[in-house]
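Tutorial handout. Part one gives the primary structure; part two gives the three-dimensional structure as tokens.
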Amino acid sequence: MAGTLALALVLGLASLSFVMRATGSLLPNLPPAITARTSGLAPALLAALVAIQLTGTNGLLHLDVKVPAVLFAALLAALRAPFIVCVIAGALVAALLRAVFHL
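Part two.
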């Protein structure tokens, strides 16, 4: 049940984000109320995708190299590093851990 709900939420957020981006070229001046309410869609979608990747089929946290990679990326984000730096650093941490532990 939780997996189905998570999938529905991810698909819903992704489709809403896509629709908002598609209408951006047609409506260049969106009202500030809509912009303020939808500014968090992309981070919410990313958080949902990360949450799905970190949990197993039973819905519990699956400990592997992704956990330290996500924690490192979250630390960089908390330190106000640019988003692309956080993503690349997290991927590098996961790759290095996989190389060291041959996972």
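Part three, for discussion. Residues 1-58 form one domain. Helices lie at 2-24, 32-38, 41-54, 66-78, 83-101.
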